[in-house]
Amino acid sequence: MSEALGTTETTRDTKTTRNTETVRKYLPGRDALTIYSLLVVVIVASATIPRFASPVTVGFLLLDVIPILMLAMPMALVIISGEIDLSVASTAGLTSAIMGVLYAAGWDIWTVLGICVIVGIVAGAVNGFLITTLGLPSLAVTIGTLALFRGLALVVIGDNAVANFPPGLTKFFTSKIGATGIPTVMIGVLVIIVFFAVLLHFTPFGRGLFALGYSTEAATFVGIRVGHAKFWLFVGTGVVASLVGIYWTLRYSSARSDNATGIELTVIAAVLLGGVSIFGGKGALPGVIAGVLLIGTLNYGLRLAKIPDVALNIVTGSLLVLSVVAPSVFSWAKERARRRRLRSHDPRPRASATTSTTTTSA
Amino acid sequence: MAEQQAPGESVLSLVGAAKSFGPVVALADGTIDIRPGEIHALVGENGAGKSTLVKILAGVHQPDSGDFRVAGELVSFKSPAESKAVGVSVIYQEPTLFPDLTVAENIFIGRQPKGRSGLISRREMRRQARELFARLGVPIDPDRVAEGLSIADQQIIEIAKAISLDAKVLVMDEPTAALSGVEVERLFGVARGLRDKGAGILFISHRFDEVFDLTDRITVMRDGRYISTHDTHTVTIDEIVREMVGRELGALFPKVEAPIGDTVLKVSGLARAGVFSNITFDVKAGEIVALSGLVGAGRTEVARAIFGIDPYDRGTVTLSGRTLAGHSPQAAIAAGIGMVPEDRRKQGLVMDLSVAKNATLTLRKKLARFGLISGKRERAAAEEWSKVLQVKTGSQDYAVSTLSGGNQQKVVIAKWLATEPKLLIVDEPTRGIDVGTKSEVHRLISDLAGRGIAILMISSELPEVLGMADRVLVMHEGRITAELPRSEATAERIMLAATATLEEAAR
Amino acid sequence: MTLSTKPNPAGAGAPARSGAAATDRNASAFSTFVRAREIPVASALVVLVVITAVINSQFLNPQGVKDLLLNATILIIMAAGQSLVIITRNVDLSVGSVLGLVAFGTGSLFNAFPNIPIVVVFLIGMVFGAVLGGINGLLVTAAKVPALVITLGTLYIFRGVLNAWAGGTQYFAGDRPVSFSDLSTETVIGFPIITLIAVFVVVAVAIFMHAVRSGRDLYAIGSDPDAALLFGIPVSRRVLYAFVANGVLTGLAGVLYASRFNSVGATTGDGLELNVVAAAVVGGVAIAGGSGTVYGAAIGALLLTTITSALTAVRVDKFWQQAIVGLLILASIIVDRVASIRRARKLRVSEARDV
């Protein structure tokens, strides 16, 4: 393959390249597309659904969306680096279970919270170790740990639920900033978002993630410690997952083994919808945030519009499928258009070839 | 120019086929004519478009234009299956076996012999495979899985597969690159046998002795275009080489004499079980040392080990007197080594990232202030080096995939120059690059040596090696078999050292 | 277990059967041993059964065995189907939702047409499954996107459709003809009828994968998809058929589910995909494609269900079950990986000596 490509380079070629580049600049990118869709959905929902455009809505929507939003940040980095983590929701569940059991056993709540974060670190490190040190595929590993961590949550807490967390804490987790309707915890969530955005887009580490998502070999050749980077990425994901477990437990004031079950799907759907390539190496966090909010708003809007909960599964699933199928359809259409152009009115790049076809017989 | 054939006479003919990938023209005029009962050589430098042509014949690529006939009938293959169905069989440069399947099944996949029950008869399949291997004279167990077979064994299985297909046209894309002398002889015997039975064979090789020994006609390609076709016995190697290169060698390789300084790289006793052994050499400041040899001789593996990509079992690598930790590219880079890898698209660049980000990927830590990279500084650094190397791009922000091959290679080199290396390893620096830019890359490398950088160059192109190198090391089967100073390096001596033991085995 | 007498699959490194061994190199024997993953899994199953039986003598009484087989039946069929897909280097995570749809569909069929012939119900269920599998297959092959993502999406969509369709409705065994439920209670020579159906399915699919050309193509595709394309194997079509076949088998499992279990509703089959993938992986079907066997997956399924029953039999908390499934998945992929690293190192060195 490599020999086949990149043979002739002429000024004409560079010029055509430049033209297509200018065109591309004005075409909406994948993440811009998501942001526009989000705006459209918000406007349509505000106009058509009564009670949608209100601080109450903003508050509940954000409270609902926070777990997805938090997890989408490290997940975006993981997928950009060419891996995947299906175990995030189970890690959150395990954290919740341990939190419940320890608190019910009379431990100090702050100690419990500390231990929860450690649980996240350990869970992430287990994934990271298996994936980087043993070189196992992250898909298989995290399907395994998805079952394992959820299973451990069951082992820890069984089918019990722990509810009586300190009222001050649970109240804090549902409180709003003044009259804005914005939950107070959003401040913490913003910190996480900024942390991962800076990490991905403005640090050497982030540059490395793009490189190794595109090709591990290419990353190795510029001295990126691939295993090292991936390991810490999974640890980071584990920590955020444990924070989600804590949030979930305190927001609903209930520690159960099945907390946050299945949200890994929504997280992945949101990340891919936000323009991150499932093949790694491509993506940006603004798009991901828009993807999360798009799914959240759609779900919330549909619920307000009295569309039954069951339809929400279909919406999330369809968005996920759409977000991965759309780029293929898009590039297929582009390729077709290019071929047609080549055949019809732009014979120049192949001028010589056409001449030789017609003149060899002469 | 070519003698034109009436379509009826040839078993396969392709005239004026063009193929481009995006903005890149891989094949501008692919023309070949194969008659029944002949062995036809296709020669050309790397990047001349041979592989693209082969893939068109195989049905892997569909040509954008051109006239393609098999046995006089116009064809347009949509898949390799269609090509195979009309009797075109292809052995690729790189074997394409299924690692999890057995050897026998690899030969017969898709057309396994069936027993009376209509089910696959493994016994029959095994028997036929054994027969094929007996005919080829190789002792390969048909029941073992293909995973872990040596390249040579894999190539033999590909050949067995092609033979068993009884093809009208057999295309062999450098089938001998990894074979030993005996195996090559046997392959030639088989090829002649097929020819005598009326098959048309297209044979692609870089080894002129083979081309002249085996083939009836020779077609030359250059820069994606058909150049000429000759009866083999009417031409000389010199004439063919001139047509392949298209200009005088001297003009191609503007080697500038540079003062040679102290030893920069010292490799002693480097070994990795099963890959290479007892590798000892040094490279001095300002010196270009070429690592030559056949594909698969272990050249790239040695370079990768020096740069720390792969581990090694024994030996030491010293840079300017300091011993390097093994298996750590970080250590190698810190010590002042840069490496321009073999596969630009997979190893050299991150194709989706911008030119600026690619060019500064090696500097990412130096560019950061308080841990944060500033876009302005990044672009400035990238700008500086692209200017020096004259990278042609509309903007530093364009994805590097939009550049041409030559300019991409300059970005890779820029990336390393930015680290101010003492030693630059370049692996096949001009592979897939058109001729104009090729000489630019050569001038660049020569320049760098002039600035006192030690250069270790791996190249499969003999003219490149002969034109550029101050010293040539030749590898064969994981060992260095010759060390030739510039004055003593000739194509014949290098080829001899690269195949020396093969010749002995053949006798 | 009569497994040891079965011929080994060629895909897992065809063993040189006694007479036919020719110029065997060491590597061949070694890789055959390592790749015959079914043997250690089967041994683990035997050990598990023996230990459990020693601790709890009730475990192996006729009723216990019957329950064990009944519980395993549906998972066995689904694992067999899933292994077809995994061998092509894909995966189908939507099978739990597909099973739910078909099972609920079966319930509603009997509800709407109480006198419908059972054979027709089976056919409709399998066609329904085929359509759903076909949707997955088309999306995967047309969009060229990892099957994981597509089937994660259809897992949601199919489940959503089932939710919308079923709402709060549940159909109970009482709504279905006795002869239909009898399939899960009547036995022939000690085996429940639905288990015999499962065994038949496994044997049929195993023969297809072992000795039919298009079955062998699936191994080639999973082993190296690019080489398969280059070779002219119709990769997209084969992968599509693998998904359809998996759909058919899942549909069959769905109908049998309705026969075996009392109620079918909106949550039927929820989360089952995890056990199915686990069964296949534990049974030696490599998640990276190209190797593994259908009966390996079946043994994996039997092992997983036996663990659940064994936990109950030895009175270990049932909550451990899922954690053990997770551990088994991890253990299997680790064992495979370590074996392949060793094999690669050995081969590298031994090839070098040959030179």
From TrEMBL, chain A:
Annotated Gene Ontology cellular components are: plasma membrane
Report how it sits in the membrane. Answer: Multi-pass membrane protein
Q: Where is this region: Disordered?
A: 341-362
- Record's keyword terms, sorted: Cell inner membrane, Cell membrane, Membrane, Transmembrane, Transmembrane helix, Transport
| Subcellular localization | Cell membrane
Tell me, in one coarse class, where this protein mainly resides.
membrane
Question: TM spans, by residue?
Answer: 33-53, 59-79, 86-103, 109-131, 138-157, 177-200, 231-250, 262-280, 287-305, 311-333
Q: Does the keyword Cell inner membrane apply?
A: yes
Skewed-composition ranges (Low complexity): 350-362
Gene Ontology molecular function terms on file: transmembrane transporter activity
Record bears the keyword Membrane: yes
Pfam families the record matches? BPD_transp_2 (PF02653)
> PANTHER family from the entry?
ABC TRANSPORTER PERMEASE PROTEIN YPHD-RELATED-RELATED, AUTOINDUCER 2 IMPORT SYSTEM PERMEASE PROTEIN LSRD
Q: What is this protein called?
A: Autoinducer 2 import system permease protein LsrD
Q: What is the lineage of its organism?
A: Bacteria, Bacillati, Actinomycetota, Actinomycetes, Micrococcales
UniProtKB/TrEMBL annotation, chain B:
Give the keywords, sorted: ATP-binding, Cell membrane, Membrane, Nucleotide-binding, Repeat, Sugar transport, Translocase, Transport
Where is it located? Cell membrane
- Domain ABC transporter, by residue range, is 12-248, 259-502
Task: Tell me how this protein sits in the membrane.
Answer: Peripheral membrane protein
GO MF assignments: ATP binding; ATP hydrolysis activity
What is the protein's name according to its record?
A: D-xylose ABC transporter ATP-binding protein
Q: Name one GO cellular component term.
A: plasma membrane
Q: Which InterPro entries match?
A: AAA+_ATPase, ABC_carbohydrate_import_ATPase, ABC_transporter-like_ATP-bd, ABC_transporter-like_CS, P-loop_NTPase
TrEMBL record, chain C:
Q: Does the keyword Repressor apply?
A: no
Q: Which residues cross the membrane?
A: 39-56, 68-86, 93-110, 116-140, 147-168, 188-209, 239-259, 271-288, 295-313, 319-339
A Pfam short name: BPD_transp_2
Gene Ontology cellular component terms for the protein in this record: plasma membrane
The coiled-coil regions, if any, are none
Predominant location: membrane
Output one GO MF annotation: transmembrane transporter activity
Topology with respect to the bilayer: Multi-pass membrane protein
Q: Which key words tag this protein in UniProt?
A: Cell inner membrane, Cell membrane, Membrane, Transmembrane, Transmembrane helix, Transport
Matching entries from InterPro entries are given as:
ABC_transp_permease
Q: Where in the cell is it found?
A: Cell membrane
Q: What job does the chain carry out?
A: Part of the ABC transporter complex LsrABCD involved in autoinducer 2 (AI-2) import. Probably responsible for the translocation of the substrate across the membrane.
Q: How does it assemble?
A: The complex is composed of two ATP-binding proteins (LsrA), two transmembrane proteins (LsrC and LsrD) and a solute-binding protein (LsrB).
Record-given protein name: Autoinducer 2 import system permease protein LsrC
Q: In which organism is this protein found?
A: Subtercola boreus
